[in-house]
Amino acid sequence: MLTILGAVVVIGLVALLAGAILGFAADKFKVEADPIVEQLDALLPQTQCGQCGHPGCRPYAEAIAQGEAINHCVPGGQETINKIAALMGVEPLPLDSEYGVENPIKKVAYIREDACIGCTKCIQACPVDAIIGAAKHTHTVIVSECTGCDLCVDPCPVDCIDMIPMPVTRETWHWPLPQPASTAHKIPIMQVDE
Question: Which domains does the chain carry?
Answer without folding.
Answer: 35-88 (1.10.15.40), 105-169 (3.30.70.20)
